[in-house]
Each structure stands twice: as structure tokens, then as C-alpha cells.
Amino acid sequence: MNKLIRRSLLRHPVRTLLTIGSLAVALFLLCFLRSLVTTLEAGAAAANQQRLWVQSAVSLFVDLPLSYQGKIDGVDGVKGTCKWQWFGGYYRDQTNFFAQFAVDPEPLFAMWPEVEIAAGSKEAFLADKRACIVGEGLARQFGWKVGEAVPLIGALFQKADGSAWDFQIAAIYRAGRPTVDDRTFFFHWDYFEETMKEAMGETPQVGVFVIELEPGAAAPGVMASVDALFENGPQRVQTTTEAEFQRQFATMFGNVPRLISFIGGGVLLAILLACVNTMLMQAREQLREIGVMKALGFSDGAAALFLLSQSLLLVGTGGALGIGLALLTQRGIAGFLSRFFPGYAVQPLTLAAAIGVTAILGLLAGAVPARLAERTRTVEAMRPH
Amino acid sequence: MGEPMIRLSGVSKSYRRGGETLTVLDHLDLAVPDGAFYALMGPSGSGKTTLLNLVGGLDHADSGEVVVAGTELGALDGRDLSRWRADHVGFVFQQFNLLSVLTALENVELPLLLAPLSRKERRDHASHALELVGLADRMHHRPGQLSGGQEQRVAIARAVATDPKLILADEPTGDLDRRAADQVLDLLGQLHEKFGKTILIVTHDPLAAARAEKTIHLDKGKLDRVETRPPSPGAPSRPPS
Fold first, then answer.
1. How many helices (H) and strands (E) does chain B have?
2. Structural domain contains residue B236
């Protein structure tokens, strides 16, 4: 019977292979899109509970006065703060774009234990204003070594003479957790501040302040206190937990998870219709043979199962290929998307969902043809055309 | 005298077509003894194929009683009727109706999937049936690679593979040339004479009907007349069982 099911499907090999190909692409996309969502969610879930983020209440694109740091440091429950300023430069060519931040060097290590030094030393970074530390992924991409000079062209912030910003790699860090991006470039706030003062004649502002809570301090209370501190300006702030900050960052350009889910749903609906169409064609072409099988003694249920099995085999093959492809390409995609989706991985739950979706697709695509086979009257099916 | 293999009592069957009721069988009574070879003849629309479908359990009578191999078919539901067909009837069709994606051997094996046999037993039974119809050397060919006569012989092998008591053939020689038709009729004759199968064939071909012991003529859903073939010299009075 298995042979009959298999060969019946391959009666029109091109049609069958095209359907399997479409299914493989659809299931691959489903795994990929779902993995993007779970990666975003994992980033938020893995967020540090001891860190709060202070940004402008207007937008993340609006900077905050430098003077805010001292006031935030004075709030009860705040152990320390760290400045983060998006630099937005590039290395040699505008296509060599990656995340660069001017930060307070010592708090960086104190507050982000997941930034682990892999080569060079923390001390070397702290000792030199022009020193920087870069992630392993970034070092690998550009072939950088510790001690190497790295010039960055400032796209948002330019030096007074228009020349490149000079940095020297003091250390290379590894990401202590998969959700930490290993393609980031950190350098001293002081170097940034001095250079910008020289260029603009005024103190630069800060993108965000990150707060480290005292052990046992209640985050909601601290958040409320910080927000209240700047209630009357000059720039109102919004303080959030790190998880919420990451969620907001991920949805900055719209509700990405919902958009991804819509796309995934649309892909599934399209492929379901294609499969139903293929299976209905299969059923119509096999009506006479189903009549013969019934005449030979196969029951209505067996006839239905015959077509349902074809549907499950067709969709199962396409689904297995798509899921396999998602697993095979996992590492490559993780490397490619590491800047926006650090820690990209196809989770076991995503695989289980894809297998479930494949089974449901197979059942749905086979349901109508199976019902047709079940209800086919032998006498009608075998009537000469 | 024992219970006949086929007994129809007051059987009627009609179809609705285009808002009109068309009576195909009209209070028909008929009996076919166990081990007999009967032919059914009549003009188109006389109810021959409908009668064959009722006897084979492919359709239900509107009224009357259809008893085949001791079973009242009207009392069986769809599932039991399928099971009954698998156990008691072998069908041979005018258009052969082999499954094009299967080889001759696999086609013959198909009804055996419903029997409690191992894979090897199925294969042995199917091979034996193909040897019986003289196609042992064609068992791995697909229907498209066989002549019409060979296809019909494969269909006969499929019909006898489960060793049913009753073989129903609907115009088995209708699509064949004379030589191939004679081969098929010879085979049906052998199944009747050597293996005691009860055979009922629907045919328009007088030469095919001449092979049968009796020819039942239907007209407008009623029994018109019955012709009995004179026994040939040396023929057994009863086929061996």
C-alpha cells in the first residue's frame, strides 16, 4: 500500500516536486520567522534585572543632558550609572557599519559581567583614553588583533579637522551569553567628550544612562524616582527595566513580532491553498482507481485514508525538507543576523511548532479529497467516460 | 438441490435522471446455481450491468431480495459489504481497470492486502495467479507495457487471486480483438471447469455468450428468456469443487 501511495503521488512528478518545494520554502520561512521572534523574546527574557535604562521620554533619538548623571547617581537604590552614546561611525567604507558606543569604561565592566575579556586586558582599556574593546565577531570580520590601530570615520560626530577618530584595540571580548551581541565596539566617553567639545565648543549630550541597582533595591520605586526627578525638564525621561527597553528597541520600527506573525500566517495560508489544490487534483485523477479499490473490497474509510496518506506524505516531505533546511542554515543565519538578532537559534519549541503545523497542513490539505474518496460511489467512479 | 449461488427475488432498481424516474430492473427473479457459468445479454439499458452491480454488492436494490453466497446483501452496511466483496467476489471489467502505477504483480497483489497474509504469501499467491493466466513473464510490467488482451488476463488474475467463489465479468471482451477475446474466454472457461467458479458475464458478444451454460436475456429490466447451451460431449455434469 505504501508503494501505491508513493507512486500515486509521483504520477505527476513535476507537480509533486513543485508542491514539495513550495512547502519546504514555507516551512523554512516559518521556522526562520518564528526564530526571529523567539530571539527577540529571549533577549528580553535574558535581560539583567539589576539594570534600568533611562532615555528621553520623547524618543530614543533625543539625547539627555550630561548633568543628569550626577542627579541619577543620587537617587536612593542607585548603585552606579553608565553613559551610552551611539556613535554611528564606519570603518574605512560606509558599508562597514557596526554598533559603536561611547561608554564609561569602569562601569561597563562592573555592570555587564557578560562582557568577558577574551584577549588583551581590561586594565589596558582603562589606562588609555583612545583604547577600545571590540567583540570577537567584529574582530573576526575585520581580522583585528589586540594592539591594532582602528580609525573610524564619524558620520554623526565629526572631529574639528574632519579627520578620522583614532582608536587602538586594548581588548577583545567574548559574549558571555548568546543574546549578547559580539559585534559591538566600545570606547571611552572621555575621548568622545573631549573631541566633541573641541569640535563644537560645547559638552555633548548622552543617548541613555544605564542604572545599576543597589542589591535589594525595588526597581519600580527607583524608576518612579528618576522619572520624577526630571518631571519639569529640561528634558523629561522615561526609565524602564532592561527587558522593557529591549522590547521597545525591537519594536522601534513597528511591532516586529506581530508583523512577522502576519507574514508567517500569510505564507501558511497560501501554502495550505496550494496543497489543497494539488490534493484535489490528485483525488479527481484517482477517482476511477478509488472505485476499483472499493470494488475489490477496500472500505470507504480505507479509500479516505489512501488519499489522506498521500496528503500527509506530500506535506510531510516538504515540511521535513523545510525544517531540515532551517536547522542546516541556522549557524550561517546566526552569523549574518548577529547585529540585529544576536543569539539567533531555532529553538526546540519552534521545531515542535513546525512539526505540528506540518501535520495540521497535511490533515487539512487531505481532508476534502479524503471525504471525496470516502463518498465516491463505486458504480459512479467506474462508469465509462 | 442446495441454495443457489445467486438468488434474486422481486428485485427492482430505478434511477432518477433529469427529474424522471427510470426503472432499470423491474421485479426481477433469478437464480444462478453454485458452479454455473451464465451469460447476461440484452439491449443497452436493459439492466444487465445494474444486475451485475447488485449481485456484486456495488449497489443496493430499491426493493426485493439479493442473496449471494448465502448472504442477503441488503442487510449489510457499507463496511460489511466491502468485506463481503473482498471475500466472495472477483470482478473483471471491460476497461480492465488496472492501476497504472503498479506492475502486473502488484495489481494482482492489491486485493490480497485485505487478506491476513504475510508479504511473501501475498507475493506467492499473486505470482501463482499470473502463472495461471500465462503471464508469469510479464509480472513486472506495468499496464501501459501490456497489450489489451494481456491487461485483461492480469485483471482475471487479480479477480481470482483471493480465490473467490463468484466471478462477475462486465463485457470482459468488449475492448479486445477476436484472438485476445478468445484467450480471455478460454481462461474464464477454465476457471469454471477446473476450479468450479460460478461465473456471470455480461456481454453483447454471441460468441462469448456461447461459452456459457445458459444465457439470460433481459429486456426493459425484466427477464425476457433463458437459453440453455446443449452439453458438449465429454463435459462433466458438475465441475470439480
1. 7, 10
2. no
Residue A50 lies in a domain: no
Shortest distance between the Cα of B237 and any Cα of chain A, in A, equals: 31
Domain that holds residue A95: 63-234
In a domain, A245, yes or no: no
A307 vs A314: CA distance, rounded Å: 11
Question: How many structural domains does chain B have?
Answer: 1
Tell me which chain B residues have a C-beta less than 8 angstroms from the C-beta of A7: 101-102
Residue type present at position B197: K
Give the burial class of B49: count Cβ atoms within 10 A of its Cβ; 0-12 exposed, 13-18 middle, 19 or more buried. Answer: buried
Kindly state whether residue B69 falls inside one of the protein's structural domains: yes
Substitution target in B49, B99, B175 with the highest count of A β-carbons within 10 Å is B99
Calpha distance A294→B85 (Å, rounded): 9
Structural domain includes residue A280: yes
**Is the pLDDT score of A51 beyond 90?**
no
pLDDT tens digit string along B183-196? Answer: 888 888 888 988 88
What is the pLDDT, as a whole number, of residue B238? 44
Model pLDDT for residues A245-295, shown as the tens digit of each residue = 777 766 655 567 778 888 888 888 988 998 999 999 988 888 889 999 999
Domain count, chain A: 2
**Same structural domain, A201 and A87:** yes
- Identify which of B26, B16, B93 has the alpha carbon closest to the alpha carbon of residue B53: B93
Residues A152 and A291 in one domain: no
Which of A10, A296, A382 is the best mutation test for B, with the most CBs of B within 10 A? A296
Instruction: Tell me if B30 sits within 8 A of B223, measured CB to CB.
Output: yes
Between chains, do B111 and A297 touch, taking CB under 8 Å as contact?
yes
Question: Are A382 and A295 contacting, i.e. CB atoms less than 8 angstroms apart?
Answer: yes
The reply to whether A317 falls in a domain is yes
Q: Are strands B37-41 and B198-202 parallel, antiparallel or unpaired?
A: parallel
Judge whether B1 lies within some domain. Answer: no
- State the CATH number of the domain containing residue B208: 3.40.50.300
Residue B153 located in a structural domain: yes
Evaluated on CA atoms A105, A109, A112, A118, the torsion sign reads positive
pLDDT by residue (tens digit) across A17-30? 999 999 999 999 99
State chain B's mean pLDDT as an integer. 87
- Complex ipTM, two decimals? 0.86
